Task: inverse folding
C-alpha cells in the first residue's frame, strides 16, 4: 500500500469517526460494554484475519478418544525425573511448555538443562488436532478470551509440563563457562517431572529481596539455590549477548484487568529479572536446536529479522537526538544508542523503541539449509536461531520438535523441503494476523476502560505526527488515541494536557482534544 493510499484509508476512517462524534451523547448513554462484548469482538477479529476461533467437531472427537498422557517404551529415553526441575511463567499460565534446571560443575562451569514438552508424542502429524494447529499456527491471547492453538485438554493438561506429573520432553543440554561462553551442547529425549510451578513476578521479587520465596519452591529441597544458579547464569548470558550487539527494547502491551465483567484497569507486565532468566535460556535452547539441525544436514525453519533496509531512517531518528550512527547497519551501535536513550528519557523510551522496531521490519520464518548464507536475527545479533521452546502454542516450534526427534531416531525427515518453504510463508502470515488481532483487542480494551470517562482531562505525550493525524499516549492509564484537533507545530515527545471526547469499543477508537493552554 502506498503512503497516499494509507492516508486516504485513514482519512476515510476519520470521516466515519466524525459522523459518530455528531451523536456522541447518545453513544455515551448507550455504552454498557462488558467482557462478553470484548469476547464477541475478538471472535469477529479472528475471522476477519483468517483465523479459526473455534475447534471443529472432528478435532474434539479426536481429543475425546485420547485416554491419557503419552507413553513411550524406547529405552533410549533418559530418566531425568529426579532433577529439581521448575517452571517459571505468568501467574495464570496453564500451558507449560518448558522446565529448567542448573547443575554446578567444577571450575565455576554450569550445566543447564531445558526441557520442552514433547507435544508431538500426542499430536501426530496429519491428525485433526495437527491440521487445526497448522491452520492457525499460534495461540492468540486477548484479555477477555484466549484462542489456544491446541485444545485445553492437551495444552493445559496432557501435553503441559504440569507439577508432579511425569511427562515426555525434548531436553537441550548446555554447558557454559562462568562468563557465559558455551563449551558444548546436545539434545536428547527424556522423562521429566516438574517439581515447582513458579511465577515471574514472585520469583523476581524474591531475587530482589522484596518478598519471601514462594511456598511451591520452599517445599523442594535445594530449590532456593537452584533458582539463584539459574539467575546467575542467565545474567551472564544476557551481559554477553548485549556486548555482542543484541538489542534491548521496551514496549508496552497492557492487559485489561477485570472485576467480574467490568474492565477496571490496564496492567503492564514488567520485564523483570525472572523474565530475563527464561528469555536467556530459551534463546540459548533455540540456538542449540538450530545448530543441531544444521550439523546433521537438516533444513530448518529459522526465525529471522533481516538487516534493516530502512537503516538510514533509523540513522535519522538517532540524528534528531544528537547521535551519529554508522551508515551501514550495526546492531552494536544501535544498542549503544538505545541504552543511552533509555537512561536519558525513560518515559519516552518505549515510544522510541516502537519507532525503531517498525523501521527494522517484522520477524519472519524462512527455510535455511547447510551451506547457504544465513540471514540471521538482527535484533538478537545471531545467525543461528529457530523457534523450538513453545510447541503447545506455536506451530513452528512443533515443526522443529518433529525434525529434531526424527534426527535422533534416524528416521526420515517429517517435512519435505517444498513443504517447509510453504509452511514458513504460512506461519509468517498467520503470526502477523494473530498479532493484529491482539493489537486490535488492546485498543478495544482501552476504549472500554475509558468509555465512562468522557470529558475527563489527562496528561499525555505525542507519539506520532503524520499527514494522516496526530497520536497521543496518556501517561496514566497507558492508552493511546487520536488527537481530534487541527493543529500544527506539535512534535513527537511533546507533553500535552488533553480531554477525552470520544470512544468506540466496537472499533477500538479513542479521541482526545487539547485543553486550553495547549493550543
Result:
Amino acid at each position: 500500500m502506498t503512503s497516499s493510499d494509507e492516508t486516504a484509508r485513514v482519512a476515510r476512517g476519520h470521516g466515519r469517526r466524525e459522523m459518530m462524534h455528531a451523536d456522541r451523547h447518545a453513544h455515551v448513554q448507550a455504552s454498557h460494554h462488558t467482557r462478553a462484548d470484548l469476547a464477541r469482538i475478538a471472535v469477529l477479529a479472528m475471522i476477519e484475519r483468517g483465523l479459526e476461533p473455534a475447534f471443529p467437531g472432528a478435532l474434539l472427537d479426536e481429543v475425546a478418544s485420547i485416554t491419557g498422557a503419552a507413553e513411550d517404551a524406547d529405552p533410549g529415553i533418559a530418566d531425568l525425573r529426579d532433577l529439581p526441575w521448575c517452571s517459571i511463567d505468568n501467574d495464570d499460565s496453564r500451558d507449560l511448555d518448558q522446565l529448567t534446571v542448573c547443575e554446578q560443575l567444577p571450575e565455576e562451569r554450569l550445566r543447564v538443562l531445558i526441557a520442552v514438552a514433547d507435544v508431538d508424542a500426542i499430536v501426530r502429524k496429519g491428525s485433526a488436532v495437527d491440521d487445526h494447529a497448522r491452520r492457525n499456527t499460534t495461540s492468540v491471547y486477548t484479555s477477555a478470551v484466549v484462542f489456544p492453538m491446541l485444545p485445553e485438554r492437551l495444552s493445559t493438561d496432557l501435553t503441559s509440563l504440569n507439577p508432579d506429573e511425569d511427562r515426555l520432553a525434548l531436553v537441550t543440554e548446555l554447558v557454559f563457562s562462568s562468563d557465559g561462553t558455551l563449551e558444548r551442547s546436545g539434545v536428547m529425549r527424556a522423562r521429566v517431572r516438574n517439581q515447582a510451578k513458579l511465577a515471574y513476578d514472585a520469583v523476581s521479587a524474591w531475587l530482589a529481596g522484596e518478598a519471601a520465596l514462594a511456598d511451591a519452591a520452599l517445599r523442594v529441597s535445594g530449590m532456593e539455590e537452584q533458582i539463584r544458579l539459574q539467575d546467575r547464569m542467565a545474567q551472564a548470558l544476557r551481559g554477553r549477548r548485549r556486548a555482542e550487539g543484541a538489542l534491548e527494547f521496551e514496549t508496552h502491551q497492557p492487559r485489561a484487568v477485570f472485576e467480574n465483567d467490568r474492565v477496571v484497569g490496564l496492567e503492564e507486565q514488567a520485564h523483570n529479572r525472572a523474565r530475563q532468566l527464561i528469555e536467556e535460556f530459551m534463546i540459548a535452547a533455540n540456538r542449540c536446536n538450530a545448530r543441531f539441525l544444521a550439523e546433521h544436514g537438516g533444513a530448518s525453519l529459522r526465525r529471522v529479522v533481516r538487516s534493516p533496509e530502512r537503516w538510514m531512517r533509523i540513522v535519522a531518528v538517532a540524528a534528531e537526538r544528537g547521535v551519529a550512527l554508522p551508515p551501514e547497519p550495526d546492531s552494536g551501535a544501535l544498542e549503544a544508542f538505545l541504552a543511552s536513550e533509555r537512561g536519558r528519557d525513560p518515559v519516552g523510551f518505549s515510544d522510541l523503541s516502537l519507532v525503531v522496531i517498525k523501521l527494522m521490519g517484522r520477524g519472519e520464518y524462512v527455510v535455511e539449509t547447510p551451506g547457504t548464507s544465513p540471514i540471521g536475527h538482527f535484533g538478537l545479533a545471531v545467525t543461528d536461531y529457530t523457534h523450538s521452546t513453545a510447541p503447545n502454542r506455536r506451530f513452528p516450534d512443533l515443526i522443529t520438535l518433529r525434525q529434531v526427534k526424527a534426527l535422533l531416531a534416524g528416521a526420515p525427515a517429517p517435512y519435505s523441503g517444498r513443504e517447509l518453504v510453504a509452511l514458513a510463508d504460512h506461519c509468517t502470515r498467520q503470526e502477523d494476523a494473530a498479532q493484529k488481532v491482539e493489537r486490535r483487542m488492546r485498543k478495544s480494551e482501552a476504549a472500554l476502560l475509558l468509555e465512562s470517562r468522557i470529558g475527563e482531562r489527562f496528561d499525555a505525550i505525542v507519539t506520532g505526527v503524520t499527514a494522516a493525524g496526530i497520536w497521543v499516549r496518556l501517561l496514566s492509564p497507558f492508552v493511546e488515541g487520536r488527537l481530534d484537533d487541527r493543529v500544527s507545530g506539535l512534535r513527537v515527545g511533546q507533553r500535552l494536557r488533553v480531554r477525552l471526547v470520544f470512544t468506540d469499543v466496537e472499533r477500538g477508537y479513542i479521541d482526545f482534544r487539547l485543553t486550553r493552554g495547549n493550543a
User: Anything to note?
Assistant: The longest strand covers residues 182-193. Confidence is low (pLDDT under 50) at residues 1-13, 22-30.
